[in-house]
Amino acid sequence: MSQWVLKVDEFPRKRNFPFQVEQIYYCNEQKIQVAPRQEKFFEICLRLSSPTDSTEDIVNGKYLKMPCPNVALRLPGSIWSQPQPSIRNVISFCYSPEVPEKINLLGLNVENEVRSFVQTSETDMLIAKLIRTVHSLHTPGAADILDWTCFSLLATLQLQDNMTENAAADLKSRIHNVAIWFRTHFAEKIDIDEISSANGFSHDHFFKCWKRYFALTPVQFINNLRLEAAAQRLIETNISVSEIIKEVNFAGEYMFYKRFRQKYAMTPAEYRRSHTLEDLE
User: Fold this and answer.
1) d(CA 141, CA 126)
2) Measured by CB atoms within 10 angstroms of the end CB, which terminus of the chain is less buried, N or C?
3) Is the CB of residue 76 less than 8 Å from the CB of residue 41?
4) Strand 37-38 to strand 113-116: parallel, antiparallel, or no bridges (unpaired)?
């Protein structure tokens, strides 16, 4: 668990970027309290995850519930609170009170709201860059990089509003592309991070998105494919169990026997024998 606040306005800038970040807040697995507060800044708050998979807010007296990930845009003067304490994974950045008007002039139209967004390779890259820069503040121009990164993230989220369905379809397609690769290469040594990265995912984003579409984890999914292939080989051939384990690339005989019994409620030998008897009948 971690939590920190960085006052970016205390660091020197080399450029006069019109949208300068005042401060950045980050918390991971931290409890957010219910006490209402009136916003002094214009805050963009990304709630990346929550144990309940959703967030609850009371905004100027109005109750809002939204699935994660979502972004809360908090205008100066608005009053925000939570119905009850909640644990969240959050990153937010704040601008001075006059910034919303400047942003609206660009056609990005910010207002008090909470809305879902789709985590894409682009949003992941910007979030990772933001956090990486925060941890490298000794680098010349770090504050300028934060200004541009935060604004790019805000613009990306605002523009995504009209592309949510396409982005969601793209996400599902990329996850199923990985699943197809697993189905056709399960007998090989698989580097999950390498395959997910080739489809535009960071490590954490891939595992989070995968569980939206599959009940099994990626490792369980792959092992299940190997078990099913092994079961088929037991029926179709007379080769030894040890050779089949090598063929399907299962990690160790002990674990293979354990997982096989869990899945089929019998040993490999019993499974082969039962199907041989079925053929004779």
Assistant:
1) 17
2) C
3) yes
4) unpaired
- Listing DSSP states for 100-152 in one string gives HHHHHHTT----SEEEE----HHHHHHHHHHHHHHTTTTSTTHHHHHHHHHHH
Residue 179 CB neighbour total at 10 angstroms: 17
Rounded distance between C-alpha atoms, residue 178 and residue 127, angstroms: 23
Mind listing the pLDDT tens digit for each residue in 160-176? 755 555 666 677 888 99
Query: What is the rounded CA–CA span in Å between residue 28 and residue 1?
Result: 5
Structure-token pair, residue 95: 């601008």
Give the ranges where 203-266 is alpha helix by DSSP (H): 203-213, 218-236, 241-248, 253-264
CA atoms within 13 A on the CB side of 17: 23
Tokens 């100066």, located at residue: 76
Can you tell me the distance from the alpha carbon of 117 to that of 167, in angstroms, rounded to the nearest whole number?
A: 9
Three-state SS for 258? helix
* Owner of token pair 């990626």: 218
Residue 269's CB: how many other CB atoms inside 10 A?
11
How far apart CA 182 and CA 266 sit, in angstroms, is 26
Instruction: Render pLDDT for 214-248 as a digit per residue (tens, 0 to 9).
Output: 999 999 999 999 999 999 999 999 999 999 999 99
Measured at the alpha carbon of residue 22, what is the angle toward residues 13 and 27, in degrees to the nearest 5? 120
65 DSSP assignment: E
Rounded (10°) angle between helices 241-248 and 268-280: 110
Task: Give the predicted TM-score (pTM) of the model.
Answer: 0.62
